[in-house]
Automatic annotation (TrEMBL), chain B:
Any one GO CC term of the record: membrane
Keywords annotated in UniProt: Membrane, Transmembrane, Transmembrane helix
Lineage: Bacteria, Bacillati, Bacillota, Bacilli, Bacillales
Residue ranges crossing the lipid bilayer per the database entry: 33-50, 57-76, 88-111, 144-164, 204-231
Membrane topology: Multi-pass membrane protein
Identification of the protein by name: LrgB
Compartment(s): Membrane
Length: 160, 232
């Protein structure tokens, strides 16, 4: 069996390894789970703890937004905080990567309850709905072609 | 109790829709259109009101926060690409974001769209969680914005290859940036076909378009005031 540093599989090294006893217990527990072949459960626990760590950035961002009256949404502030924490090596990539991948892979699931709210707008199935589809199609065409042309122009020679 | 039931129902139908759409390759057969359709059918049959449903499913909606923050990870992973092409990326994505907002606005005025439709259309070119934030911030309806964002993604993903052919775009960097800018996550999914470089640029364009669009609306309140002045 691969010997891993204490606490590593759960991304618990945030404590700097000072609190020895609970980490040993956690790692024994992990080995036990591995031996009974419940690595699936461990994966879920890892993802759960990593999401909790990402979530703490949201809470921190909400606090900062409140205290300094920052005009941006808390999620955007949180995104910047996590980004700089990664750049400054305060948070290691492997502490958040699995949780983040799960969140991004299941992103669609989190919109669905809000998308159901569409039933409150029956205009969408009228002539206005057709107009909207045309508008979005045409506007998307403009955005896509102009962005591509700007990139090609700006890049010059190597664009061809 | 309704909380647990609604969450499990949503998750189950979402997984079902994902399986179904995997087998059928038709753009309108998208999990984000199919799942709400199935859910609306289910809650009407079970006699659950829409507001009870949305309140019950709060946990799922709440996960949008950490999911948006998770976008920091792909940006961090592609930091070297971002640094190397920072000028190109910032210019094209800023221009693209402005074009997206103002072309939606202009066309909506031309077509005499209703007020709440027009406002909810403005952030349609960015990834859904950030578009919802912008929509709420400028007085739009997040559930309308979601539908517009999905339509943008589906239409952009479908027209991508034809647009590149029409304008003779060959560079994977240009394709990636254009797809991520104009069709967010659905476009990025399309960019996978053009290779790893296109995918990286598409991911960066998708996230930065969201950030820049928020900056346009929130840090420059003049933009919102200017646009809203014309509406009223």
């Amino acid at each position: 069996m691969v010997q891993r540093p204490l606490g590593h599989p759960l991304g618990l090294t945030i404590s700097g390894g000072r609190a020895k006893t609970p980490l040993i217990e956690v790692s024994l527990y992990i080995n036990f789970l591995k031996e009974v072949g419940l690595s699936m459960l461990m994966k879920i626990v890892t993802i759960f703890l990593q999401i909790a760590l990402i979530y703490s950035f949201l809470l921190l961002a909400m606090g900062l937004k409140q205290v300094f009256a920052i005009p941006f949404p808390a999620t955007l502030i949180g995104l910047f905080l996590l980004f700089f924490a990664l750049v400054l090596k305060i948070v290691k990539l492997e502490w958040v990567e699995k949780g983040a991948n799960w969140l991004m892979a299941e992103l669609l699931l989190f919109f669905i309850p809000s998308a159901v709210g569409i039933v409150n707008y029956d205009e969408i199935v009228s002539w206005q709905g057709v107009n909207i589809v045309l508008l979005i199609g045409f506007s998307t065409f403009i955005v896509m072609s102009l962005t591509a042309l700007i990139v090609t122009r700006f890049k010059g020679a190597d664009a061809a | 109790m309704i909380f647990l039931f609604v969450t499990i129902l949503t998750y189950g139908l979402y997984k079902l829709a994902k399986q179904l759409t995997k087998k059928v390759d038709f753009p309108l057969f998208h999990p984000l259109l199919l799942t709400p359709a199935l859910l609306i059918g289910a809650i009407f049959t079970l006699n659950i009101s829409v507001s009870d449903y949305t309140e019950g499913a709060f946990l799922l909606t709440h996960m949008l926060g950490p999911a948006t923050i998770a976008f920091a990870i792909p940006v961090y992973k592609h930091l070297s690409v971002l640094k190397k092409h920072i000028g190109l990326i910032l210019i094209s994505v800023t221009a693209g974001s402005l074009i997206a907002i103002f072309s939606s606005f202009g066309l909506a005025i031309l077509l005499k769209m209703e007020h709440h439709f027009l406002i909810s259309l403005l952030p349609r070119s960015i990834t859904t969680p950030l578009a919802m934030e912008v929509s709420t911030g400028i007085g739009g309806q997040p559930s309308l914005t979601i539908i517009f964002v999905i339509m943008t993604g589906i239409l952009g993903g479908v027209m991508g290859p034809a647009v590149f052919k029409l304008f003779g775009v060959k560079s994977p960097i240009a394709k990636g940036l254009a797809l991520g800018m104009s069709a967010h996550a659905v476009g990025t999914n399309r960019a996978i076909e053009y290779g790893e470089e296109a995918t990286t640029f598409s991911t960066l364009a998708m996230i930065l378009a969201g950030v820049i669009t928020i900056l346009i609306f929130e840090a420059v309140p003049v933009t919102s005031r200017f646009l809203l002045f014309f509406v009223n």
